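Module 6 notes. Inverse folding takes a fixed backbone as the condition and produces residue identities as the prediction. Think of it as a translation problem where the source language is geometry and the target language is the twenty amino acids. Below is one complete input and output pair. Work through it position by position during the lab.
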C-alpha cells in the first residue's frame, strides 16, 4: 500500500443520498483492484488549507499523528467502488448525511481540482471456501462494497443480500451472474443506525439450508446485533462471519 496524491476529477449524484467522486492522480496506475470490499484511507485538508500535508514512508501514521492539530489532515475510511488504473482514476461513493462529519462535508462540496490523498488499497472480502450460500447485509455506507462483492460472485454462487437505504431513489442496479436475492430496505427519512430495519429483515429471512457465510457492515451497534442474531439464533459459525462497524452513532470511527 502507498500514498497517492489525487485531485477531484468529477462529482456525480447517484441518488439523494449518494455522490460518486472520481479521483485522479499520477500514481493511481499502481492502484490495482485486488478484490471486493477494497478499503482505502482518504486524507482531506483541514479548513483553510488546500492540500493535505501527508507524510509518506513506512512510519506515515506516527508522522501524521505528530502533525499539529490545525494542519493534520482529516483521515477517513472509504471503499473503492471502481478503479481504472489505465486512466489513473478511482471512484468512491460517499453517503451524504445531515450532521455527519468532515468527510461527508468534503464529499458534498467537492469540486474538480480539489486535492486529497489516498492510502491503500486493501481488499478485505474473504469468505471461507466450500459454502452453500452467502448472506450479505449492510446500510448505505456498505453499498459500494456490497455492489462490488455481488459483481464478483461467480455463476455457481448464491447470495441473499439485504441493503438499507433511505428511499428507493438510492437503490442501485446490482449486476451479477450469480443467483442473488436482493432485498432493499427503506428508512424513509428515519435516521440510520437507530432502527431495527436490517436486524428485523435478517431475522425474518428464509435462508437456505447448508453452510452459509455472512458479510455484515454498517453502523457498529447494528452490525453487532446482526452478528449476535446469526451466531445465537441462526447457528452461524462465528468464523464464517465477516463483520465491520463502518461508522458509529455519535463518534468518528477514525481518530482525528
Ligand atoms: C472499511 C470501511 C469502508 C467504508 N466505506 C464507505 C463508503 O464507501 N462510503 C461511505 O459513505 N462510507 C463508508 N464508510 C463509512 C465512513 O467512513 C463513515 O461514515 C465516516 O464516519 C464518515 O466520516 P465523517 O467525517 O462524515 O463523519 P465522522 O467525523 O466520522 O462522524 C461525525 C458524526 O457523523 C456521524 N456519521 C458518520 N457517518 C454517518 C453516516 N453514514 N450516517 C449517519 N451519521 C453518520 C457519526 O455518528 C458522528 O456522530 C466506510 C467505513 C469503513 C470502516
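Target side of the pair, the amino acids:
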Amino acid at each position: 500500500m502507498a500514498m497517492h496524491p489525487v485531485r477531484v476529477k468529477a462529482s456525480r449524484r447517484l441518488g439523494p443520498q449518494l455522490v460518486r467522486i472520481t479521483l485522479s492522480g499520477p500514481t493511481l496506475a499502481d492502484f490495482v483492484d485486488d478484490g471486493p470490499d477494497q478499503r482505502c484511507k482518504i486524507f482531506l485538508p483541514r479548513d483553510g488549507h488546500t492540500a493535505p500535508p501527508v507524510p509518506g514512508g513506512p512510519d506515515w501514521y506516527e508522522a501524521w499523528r505528530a502533525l499539529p492539530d490545525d494542519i493534520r489532515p482529516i483521515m477517513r475510511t472509504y471503499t473503492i467502488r471502481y478503479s481504472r488504473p489505465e486512466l489513473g482514476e478511482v471512484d468512491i461513493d460517499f453517503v451524504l448525511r445531515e450532521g455527519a462529519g468532515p468527510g461527508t462535508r468534503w464529499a458534498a462540496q467537492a469540486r474538480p481540482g480539489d486535492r486529497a490523498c489516498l492510502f491503500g488499497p486493501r481488499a478485505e472480502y474473504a469468505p471461507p471456501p466450500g459454502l452453500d450460500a452467502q448472506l450479505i447485509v449492510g446500510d448505505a455506507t456498505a453499498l459500494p462494497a456490497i455492489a462490488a462483492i455481488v459483481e464478483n460472485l461467480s455463476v455457481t454462487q448464491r447470495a441473499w443480500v439485504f441493503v438499507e437505504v433511505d428511499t428507493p431513489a438510492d437503490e442501485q442496479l446490482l449486476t451479477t451472474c450469480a443467483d442473488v436475492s436482493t432485498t432493499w430496505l427503506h428508512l424513509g427519512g428515519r435516521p440510520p443506525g437507530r432502527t431495527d430495519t436490517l436486524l428485523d429483515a435478517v431475522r425474518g429471512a428464509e435462508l437456505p439450508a447448508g453452510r452459509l457465510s455472512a458479510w455484515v457492515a454498517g453502523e457498529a451497534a447494528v452490525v453487532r446485533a446482526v452478528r449476535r442474531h446469526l451466531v445465537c439464533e441462526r447457528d452461524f459459525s462465528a468464523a464464517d462471519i465477516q463483520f465491520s462497524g463502518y461508522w458509529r452513532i455519535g463518534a468518528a470511527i477514525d481518530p482525528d
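Reference fact for the lab report: Residues 39, 76-79, 93-95, 97, 100-104, 141, 144, 192, 244, 246-253 surround flavin-adenine dinucleotide (CB under 6 Å).
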